[in-house]
Amino acid sequence: MDLYLPIAEVSVNWPLMLMLGAVVGFVSGLFGIGGGFLMAPVLVFLGVPPTVAVASQASHVVASSTSGVIAYGSQGLVDFRMGGIMAGGGVIGAFLGVEAFRWLRLMGQADLVVAVSYLLFLGVIGSLMLKESLEQIIRRKRGLPPPRKDRRRPMWLYGLPWKVRFPKSGLYVSAIPILGLGGFVGVLSAIMGVGGGFILVPVMLYVLRMKASVVVGTSLFQIIVTTAVTTVLQAGRNQTVDILLSSLLLFGGVVGAQLGARWSGRFRAEYLRAALGLIVLLVGIQMGLDLFVRPSDMFEIAPGGPET
Description:
The protein is mainly alpha-helical. The strands form two sheets. A two-stranded antiparallel sheet has the order 1-2. A hairpin with a 4-residue loop joins β3 and β4. The protein is globular and about 55 Å long. It starts with a strand and ends in a 19-residue tail after the last helix.
């Protein structure tokens, strides 16, 4: 049941890849994220080179996010104006990120930067999400009222030019920070192979103060555009997209994302955030361990490496 991947230069069990795509797609639809932060590390654990894992699983992010947007869009829960502006910044960031990724590969530092990025971003964000969610769960269990939250938006959002109305999100703010947020996520998409939903969703909720009902669908819409552009750029510029691996993950992801979107309404929001925070934290820690744990074999010839 093994299938040889010509770009990755390894063999994988193709039913396992289909199942992996479906499981990560389910997580994507459930939490409103692209799922790349989970897919890339798992592929690395299964023996796929990090550079190929980062680039190849981006098509899975596109497929699962598209499936999720269809589900949320049918309910009118996508702010396409907000998502479009954010995606514009994401495209610019993707171009910059792919060039940075190419430079890192030429310097031989791409694998290290990918591991450090996962450790830092996922470790910090996962810890914060888990902490906040557990506090809410504990207060609920004790019968305490939820703490009063400051719903005021940062004043700098109103002091910047290029203001745009977003009726569906309930906002009238400058497009500059929205473009900047999209650009930052675009860079992460190229270097880490993530959709960026684990950053977008908290920022849209707690900084921009968007209506919670449209956050997930809008985040997924932005992810579609950014990761689609990233996939094309990685394939053409860095030749690190394995079409066989991408296809297997894509087919499984489409089915899983639809199921996840349907199940998302069955759980309390704080429990979902706690579960997502725990997953993000564990993935970041696992990726970071490779930087500090002594390998079992100190001398190993990598597949496709130069012969001596």
